[in-house]
Amino acid sequence: MEIAFFNGKFLPKNEIRISPDDRGFLFADGIYEVVKWYGGSFFDMEAHVTRLKRSLREIRLQWLENETFPDIAVELVRQNGLYEKHAMVYIQVTRGAAPRTHHFPDYPLPPTVYAFVKELPDTGKIMPDAINVLLKEDIRWSRCDIKSVSLLPNVIGNQEARENGCMECIFARNGEITEASHSNVFFVINGVLRTHPESNYILSGITRKNVIRIATESGIMVEEEALHESELENITEAFVTNTTGEVTPIKTINGKTAGDGLPGRITILLREKFLSEIPTNRR
Ligand code: PDD
Predict the structure, then answer these.
(1) Does 71 share its domain with 146?
(2) Domain identity same for 254 and 146
(3) Under DSSP, is residue 272 helix (H, G, I), strand (E, B) or coil?
(4) Does residue 139 sit in the same domain as residue 272?
(5) Which tens digit of pLDDT belongs to each residue from 135-164?
(6) Which residue, judged by its Cα, is nearest atom 20 of ligand 1?
(7) What pTM was computed for the model?
(8) Which residue stretches of the chain are H helix?
(9) CATH of the domain at 12
(10) Ligand 1 and 206: CB distance under 6 A
């Protein structure tokens, strides 16, 4: 039986009932966070808690128990028998249930807090297959730095990617590549690692931050400067990063081979070093 967390309680998931007046349902008025469990510990939980708090602050949503997220996450892992496994924990906090008004409710409202865990395959240190990606216009709002549950353009983009034999959709705003539907994106051009700078146009990815640190520590030059679509023909490597997939090489972009289409030297090095930092019971 799958156990999830809902408003302070651990319950069988199929017993959880969310109000149709929940502002998450009516307005996507909420935020979320995703962390990965590696058979004994989470990777960089501290950074995820910091980002969760920031998202809450930015949308002016109070969840007073936000510091309990790490405990909730471990408890979910335990109660679902996943301690020895790899898994992702998802948490979502919305502004709660109230009769529909665009403005916040006039009276204090408890937020709705929901979290679940999902087992992930333990791929060890194996390099995943390089993926095809679709490049699309970035039509999202200009607060992509908030991990909002309002993800319709990301969903549509990712669906179009799937329909075109791609695993991810990368976005460009006025020709400048920002990020992907659920990842950040990096390129290697002239031996330099390039990625969009932190701004309101991208989510400040925790994997992104760690990859930049690891690259710098490894003597790889990093430029946090957007890559223009016109520069794509000169890239030698490309990869996406996110919490669940870590570093995933890109094979093609809109059908055109990225570099030689194989995981490149820098991509391999960064993935290996990233994985070697994960403190696990077994690795
Ligand atoms: N997505 N950009 C977007 C739009 C994202 O949704 C994500 C994460 C990232 C990468 O961030 P991080 O390295 O902190 O996971 C970048 C999560 C995994 C998701 O929506 O499931």
Answers:
(1) no
(2) yes
(3) helix
(4) yes
(5) 999 999 999 999 999 999 999 999 999 999
(6) 182
(7) 0.97
(8) 23-27, 45-58, 69-79, 152-163, 206-217, 265-276
(9) 3.30.470.10
(10) yes
